[in-house]
Amino acid sequence: MDAKLAAALGPYTAYFEEQPDGKLKCLVNGHCFPAGRPEQIASFVGHMLYCALTGQLLEKSLAAVKKHMGGKRFVRAKARFVADDQDLKPEPSLRDFGIILGLGV
Question: pTM for this structure?
Answer without folding.
Answer: 0.53
